[in-house]
Design brief:
about 150 residues; mainly alpha; Four Helix Bundle (Hemerythrin (Met), subunit A); 5 helices; about 75% helix; flat
């Protein structure tokens, strides 16, 4: 009968591995507990709060009315990225051209946001006094609940 020598380093490696696994699990669990429901997160963004407080049917209608703007904006952004890529490659580099592209993109974003504001205001203006009061209550709930976790799209 042959006796195999015990390898004393195997239990040490297993203990170190277990310690590392517990350390990682503790960090993950601590992070989840620390940030879950944290009041430091603050209220949601103004636009998302206004949107999520609307009744689901009105959110759907708003998305439908603005889908054309999104498609047009997407095509424009694709062209802007292409122009930006070219401007970054140009030798000599022209920061004025890049600045113009950045300003153009900022204006496009502002235009879309203005359209959103107008559509929202049109919907709220069409509400009765009771509907607006209910909407204000839902808005307070959305703000109290905090930012959404982007798990699903309404």
């Amino acid at each position: 009968m042959t006796d195999t020598p015990k390898r004393k380093w195997i239990p040490i490696v297993l203990v170190i591995s277990l310690a590392l696994n517990l350390l990682i699990a503790g960090v993950v669990l601590g992070s989840v507990l620390r940030f879950k429901g944290s009041e430091r997160a603050g209220p949601p963004g103004f636009g998302p709060a206004l949107y999520y407080a609307l009744p689901k049917s009105e959110r759907k209608a708003l998305r439908g009315e603005l889908s054309g703007l999104r498609g047009e904006g997407s095509h424009r952004r694709k062209e802007d990225f292409s122009a930006l890529s070219q401007a970054l490659r140009n030798v000599p580099f022209d920061p004025t051209a890049v600045q113009a592209l950045l300003e153009q993109q900022a204006q496009a974003t502002a235009d879309i946001q203005e359209a959103l504001h107008q559509q929202w205001l049109t919907q709220v203006t069409g509400m009765s006094d009771d509907e607006r009061a209910d909407y204000a209550d839902r808005l307070e709930e959305v703000v109290k609940r905090g930012p959404r976790k982007h798990k699903k799209r309404d």
